[in-house]
Specification:
The structure holds two protein chains of two kinds. By secondary structure, chain A is mainly beta. Chain A has no helices and eleven strands. The relative contact order of chain A is 0.34. Chain B is mainly β. In chain B, the strands form two sheets. Chain B has a five-stranded mixed beta sheet with strand order 1-9-8-3-4, with no helix packed on it. A four-stranded antiparallel beta sheet of chain B has the order 2-7-6-5, with no helix packed on it. The chains are: A mainly beta, B mainly beta. At the A-B interface, strand 5, strand 9 and strand 10 of A face strand 3, strand 4 and strand 8 of B.
Chain lengths: 116, 111
């Protein structure tokens, strides 16, 4: 069974559209993340949710809105897509609050977003 | 900014040990060193982590210097499937749950 899954795997869309990426984890973790990896391969955290509460919100345009309906899901909605949003988006999860330093993150396979 | 520095790339012969260095000279006393790798645009994969003692698991060994300012990830018998970008991360201990990925080391295992 896939531990962290994302849909869709590929997303091609026009500028100005609104799109969503879904993430689900079946590991029973209480913390989930969204990362963006741009064309230069830099991997940067965007958001983190712990028990459905936003705990990390990096400098991300407010066109990006994460939503966590429950602990196992963290979706990413993007409004008014721009060319610069083209990237691979990775979802991850971990179990915070366990023994110090053991919050291993498990990543999904990524969603490649292309904005035309 | 990432708190670690790593060589941009390395080559290793298949079957030989791959030793990947990482410098983290500003690490503080309660920060852990984590290693992840990313194989060809897949999601990053956890390898190993440590605080100050050397660690070993089924994937790799982690050697941390006594002053904790640097570490080395060792893949004892590299295979072609170990070709990947390897990230050394020092995790801030502030409750912000944030990992900061640097540029990593691109390891190429040669047949």
């Amino acid at each position: 069974d896939t531990a962290v899954s994302q849909t869709p795997k590929y997303l091609v869309t026009q500028m100005g559209n609104d799109k969503s990426i879904k993430c689900e984890q079946n590991l029973g973790h209480d913390t989930m993340y969204w990362y963006k990896q741009d064309s230069k391969k830099f991997l940067k955290i965007m958001f983190s949710y712990n028990n459905k509460e936003l705990i990390i919100n990096e400098t991300v345009p407010n066109r990006f809105s994460p939503k966590s309906p429950d602990k196992a899901h963290l979706n990413l909605h993007i409004n008014s897509l721009e060319l610069g949003d083209s990237a691979v988006y990775f979802c991850a999860s971990s179990q915070e609050g366990s023994a110090l330093g053991t919050d291993t993150q498990y990543f999904g396979p990524g969603t490649r977003l292309t904005v035309l | 900014d990432a708190k670690t520095t790593q060589p941009t790339s390395m080559d290793c012969a298949e079957g030989r040990a791959a030793n990947l260095p990482c410098n983290h000279s500003t690490i503080s006393g309660n920060e852990y060193v984590y290693w992840y790798r990313q194989i060809h645009s897949q999601g990053p994969q956890y390898i190993i982590h440590g605080l100050k003692n050397n660690e070993t698991n089924e994937m790799a060994s982690l050697i941390i210097t006594e002053d904790r300012k640097s570490s080395t990830l060792i893949l004892p018998h590299a295979t072609l499937r170990d070709t990947a970008v390897y990230y050394c991360i020092v995790r801030p201990y502030s409750g912000t749950y944030k990992y900061i990925f640097g540029t990593g080391t691109r390891l190429k295992v040669l047949a």
